## 1
Amino acid sequence: MTIDPELDRAPPTQTGDQLAHEVATVLGGSLNPRRAALQLVNLIQLNMADWAMVVIPDRQTGAMMLVGDAAPTGVRIGRAGLTGRPLDRVLSAGGYEHIEGSDLSGLVPAEPFLQAAVALAPAEAVGVALTARGVTFGALVLLRQADAGFTAAEIGAAQRVADRAALALDSARMYQQQTHVAAVLQQSLRPPTLPSIPGLRLAACYRPAAENLDIGGDFYDVLGGDDDWLVAIGDVCGKGVEAAALTGQARQSIRTAAHFDRDPAAVLRVTNSVLYNPASTQFVTMLCARLRPDGTEVRVDLATAGHPPPLVLRADGRVEQLAVYGTAAALVAEVQYGAITFRLSRGDTMLMFTDGVDEAWGSEGQYGLERLQKMLPAYAGASPEVVCEAVEQDVMEYLDGTAHDDIALLAVTCGS
């Protein structure tokens, strides 16, 4: 935004303490750092300065994000060229820097911000540190035309405003970082794509919990080669980083164990041994199925560690609930798991799911296995993608907007 230097500056409408309180109130309602920075700039320009911008460095990339009316979406520049300049001193040491005159580049280093600032020259510029929780993470830059410069008391007021703004901005930054970490961890719990397996068709569906900041513990995986494959689905108790860490351990343990022996009972036994921690109360439910296509059929060896068994939707519409049992992993040091064997014929589908499906809670109570079994026959002979989509849609309609747990589905259909 270019400001006409001929316009008189409006007098401050609030004292520094009043403005600091308003800044804390307004910015505290935003969890988006860029939006919060723009709100701060607007409040400053209404009450304390002719022009303002916020500078927030990215510690990972070394770049700096400049936010203000001149470029509402922000401008990213490198910090390397600022060494020894006033803005760099504020970002490095905290405190403030005060410069006067026509050369404002020491505190306003990039276009279009510099052009907007130069339109006010000669001017006074003050850069004050944004410091929260003992760390300086940014700077607030304020400009006034030279005939209405900053007094020592006004610089002190700007610092108090910056201190209150810093807490809100830092909270927004932390929330954004936490959201990003959650998204990355959540994505790591699922393979990006399902493999193409001759004689089989696979599909999966994953819908995170309604509280999308919580990292859930649902996962699935498919691994193997040639005509010998292992599919697994599981759920770690709890949420958050601890659950995500255990989920990662579980997936890696399954992959390592299956590299040597794809017998599902053996995979679960090894995984349980690795995950067991007497100092922890966390546990994992898992379902492992070994798939060996053979002509028009698939031999399936199935074992469970406390996870609900899959449903088998036959091509003629019959739905079978398999009887297989086993203790959840990580509860006791040693467990012997048993496996059952059955076959999928052409058009048959094995549907594996987590408790976000059968334990989904709507206005009529729990969704339940009975409802799932009743809706599946209509999709006999359908592709695994259609089966997964139909189940997900039915569960979401049953929930009718209420909060839900993570939902994971993995369907295996016999036939290319």
## 2
Amino acid sequence: MEVMALPAVSPTPGEVFAVIRDHRTVTRAEIGRITGLSRTAVTARVTALESLGLVIEQDQAASTGGRPAAQLTFNVDAGVVFAAAIGRSRTQLALCSLAGDILASSEVDQEPGMGPDELMPDLVKRLDALLDDSGRRGTRIFGVGLSLPGTVDQQSGASLDSPNMGGWDGVPLAPYFRGLTDAPVLMDNDANVIALAERRGGLGEFDDMLVVKASTGLGAGLIMGGRLQRGAVQAAGEFGHSKTAAAAGVPCRCGDTGCLEAIAGGWALVRDLQRDGHPVGHLRDVVTLAHSGDAEARRMIRESGRHIGEVLAAAVNLLNPAALVVAGDMVGAYDVFVAGMRETLYGNATALATRTLQIMPAIHRERSSMVGCAITALDHVLSPGAVDAALGNALL
């Protein structure tokens, strides 16, 4: 019996947009070569994308002869996305273009222990104010990107297990935004969004990357084989509550004892310095002390790096990343912190696993979380499926 080959599915407008978004600037002829579409089909899809404002024609490109080819450009100003990186003691807010560039931003220092009903209404008001700060009032809002410390359930849009954010687990956050926008609300773990930001921000050469967020708490984002890895229950990278002999018997804020965070997390450094009479309230204050030459602050940051490096050595052996990226507030004292990390990481990991390992600070530095939240939203709202849905699923 002869089996008939099914016809190839023709690329949709959303898939054509993905080409334009990836290249930023491209001609119709180049789209045709990449997608295999005819000139007429390319024009029809581009016309549909122009109707959404996502694509515009730019100045004509140089040509080797005949009529110059018009260039199509991803219109990054067709709308905006909100970003909110929520932490235990600080939240970073931003309004971003469709390219993920920050147009306006603000920070909110909050009392630890605030629940969503106490914090979220204020954050939404502050996000709304960013529209005025950026001069983008009236611009289409495509989406909202959120991050939280701990494990996140992306389906329900709620924290699944965050031992450091009491009262947040199981509470959907999208409803808080309905007075501001009905755009999709996308959510992920704080270290995961930083990993996305770093991968897109210039570290795309590394398909295997371990991104460590060292801040009030500790976490990691894993890029393996070029893809973000979340694990079976979204809990990949939660190394802050790994047990370590150096913390034996030391109480952790999660309610257990012996966790790495209990001796190396930013909150632990603040705790110990406060006991010694230092007027610090956050890891950022500890970093400032270190920069002022305070020997105790510098020692504690280096010791934090040593403890973290000892635990991460096992991860380096297991995963063999090409790059280890340091992000979070500790990046402000990168040299001191990494000096300690290198001691134990290279001392405990195998020579083969570390032979070509590159350790570096986050490209986006203190903005990594905000950029990552924006990317989390953009990857959803500008996906081929979302663009096709906006066009009424019309396959031209």
## 3
Amino acid sequence: MNIQINLLLATIMLSSSLTSTADDTITTRVVGGSDSVEGDWPWMVNVSAGRSQCGGTLIDARTVMTAAHCIYSNGIEISAARISVNVGAYNLLESSETIDITQTYIHHSYDPTNSASSNDIALLRLITPVSNVSLLETADITTTSEAVSSQSDVIILGWGSTVGYAPDEQVTPIYPDILQEVALPLQTDAECRQNTGSSYDAATMVCAGDQNGGEDSCQGDSGGPLILNNGGSWQQIGIVSWGSGCASAGHPGVYTRTAVYEEWIDNFLNGIAIHNKLTYGTTNIGENEQLNLLISNNTASEVELTFSLSGSNEFTYDRATCAIIAADSICSLPIIYTPTTLTESNATLTVQSDTVNLKTVSTALSGNLGFSSTSGGGGGSLFFAFSLPFLLLRRFVVAKAVT
């Protein structure tokens, strides 16, 4: 508890120092970089999610990839209706066309209550496809592993802080409006683990930064790309996720390792995708609680689905509700939790398709008696609400003006 209180106080001090008195915004940019050349990175995306601003990349004509934490506000998922993107953004002062979002697809194992959570990745489905814009490829697992082992140079892009700071330091931000870029080396997994501690997961993360500091991503860069020149072709190797301070010696930036999510991404682009896991709570024995599981068919044709449930039999659903889903559509499957004992209930729901080559997908169902929770994550505490945007996560939040 004392540790949380100390961190909370430090965070409040830091958030105060990052607030602009001129326009009531908390806004920061890439550290140690320079203005990029307009047109060099056409797949670069600026993401507006509620009051948050993040980066992203166009990986499909209708799909943007970003960080999962960009799609949460104080532990609550931001609705698709409050998210829009600007593809090919460069100068944020110049007006440009924004595109609305119809779906969000957040990795089912992302934990919004953990600032250094693995699986910090999300996909956004655009309401209209983008034409005449090149797409950013994702580096494969082998390329990524070799690049990490050899400490290859990479580039960060974003609209994040140009002012570095140590984890316990207060700073005054500077806000360039031009897309920034900075080159820096990857660190080996051993170095990352030594420099970031037990929060670093080599299976799902990479980190980058010179040991002496000076160049880094920062708040405002979240969701943007870490890219690698692989034989003359730019490929995305990471997503800006979290860090301790910015550009501070011995504190590298940490990025989602995109290669390990190839199958997960493909399910969303071309197959059947489950959008959320379900966590129930505060349900008395014999009473019912209903949550809805979102299942999308992202193929070009109608599909017929079959369902199977393993684990606790305290979860029930009507198999006919989403037995057939039209092309490019989402079905909401109600699942009812009826506890019969004072024990935790867990189950796995598996969804299969009659269409050849479509992968089987599954999700977790859990009921925790006596604990209040929500679908797809959980509520944030006061400590979470204050600490994440400033202390570790690398997005910025536009504050409401006080009237």
## 4
Amino acid sequence: MIVLVFIGVFALVYYVNFRRSRKRLYELAARIPGPFDYPLIGSILIALGKDPLELVTHLMELMHHLPSPMRAWLGPFLLVVIDEPAMVQDILSSPDCVQKPFLYDFFRLSKGLFGAPADTWRRHRKLLNTSFSPAVLKRFVPILNEKADKFTHELDGLVSAECFDVHKLLARYTLVTIASTTMGIDLSGEKREMLEEYSSNAIDLFTACFERICKPWLHPESIFKLTSTFRVEQHRMAIFKKMSKKIIGMRQHVLGQGDGLERQDSETEDKQEFPTAKIFIERLEEISRDPSLDIDADGFQQHIDTLLFGGNDTSAQTLANTLLTLGMYPELQEKVYREIVEVCPGPGPIEYADLSRFSYMEMFIKETLRLLPITGLIARAPTKEVRAGNIIIPSGAYVMMPLLKMHRDKKLWGPDAEEFNPDNFLPERCAERHPYAFIPFSQGPRNCIGMKYGWLSMKILLCHVVRRYRIGTDIKLSDIKLSLSLVMKLNKKHLIRLERR
């Protein structure tokens, strides 16, 4: 009895001191609406018992009725949900909102650009930015054309009235292209099964990591390590790491050859024009030799892991989603096709200078990204108090910005926000909207480092595929439901059919 009383008194004193140390946080939190607050557990009940697909469906039903900004408590953690574009801009452009929440640590990429602490990220990002400069991107165009042409001819064997899942093929294709360009390593000779295993395993790995976020009882690492989920994660992580380890080994072999990379570079006609344009792996090798940057072997590998997965899965998903929507809207597909043959009438490679002329294609891809986003939400952890609109967000809070809601908000996109319409991205309509109403690759200083590369590679592949094939599908946009993950998942496979033009 005495022991229980002692424990009770200790817990009460601890709780009082805990509340007192966070007085400012509670004071500012009280000024923000919080419709889902419950004693002690906060807002956990909204996610309890729901898998990621059910949670998205539930939130989509609520989204037009929730206040913004909105307060929610995940146990002791304060979440501030913001979807007003001007306020989102205040957060993402603030130098005090570069840090990501501890939840990003669950993805085990805390040394790469994806999840690195703010100070580390600033130093590394500044030095790695040049590896995606226009000069470097221009060097990639011949390689991307070669890979896209080969991929397009591989599709010949799938031309029929039968549908097939194009995502698996695209996941392999984007992995090969990201390695060939940014890593200077050609994986096209590797076994197809190994390449496909990397992509499917990575999706399973990071989906499970995301699901852990929705289960607060698994947040403490000491508890998580006791579960079977942790053991499965370790197995998947070992498979995931094989690819970056292989690339590092192949890269060391190339460097050991002395001239292997130079032979590849000499095939690019822009090498003499841009002699200092270094690809990602070259720049990473260079900065890793600087002891002040503290990039150990694990950090080096995590940078490669981050770029490989980021460039592979996001591009593959966007391309697969776009081919699916092209099949859903044949009349719009023909507009994309006519633009392609007008800009590049011949069957040859796509020139770098022509890529900016595919305005309708870009509108089509953006509309696909709006309704089928790659990332469902973005989160930041302010290191100081930050003003967003008429509220002050305290240090210690986590800010969540639901792109899924923003991109379908009828206040921003009109009463037909759920309808597919590339004209939403006509220049005059874009001028009427806040620039942060559509941010598929995030925005501000911590946006996606490979965003321009992604646009380049996607446009080149779509040009090659669309001018050779007519795409069809039986899936309708209304059939598709989204599931939260690191990269948003569809409840349907990317089933399309091809017909030669």
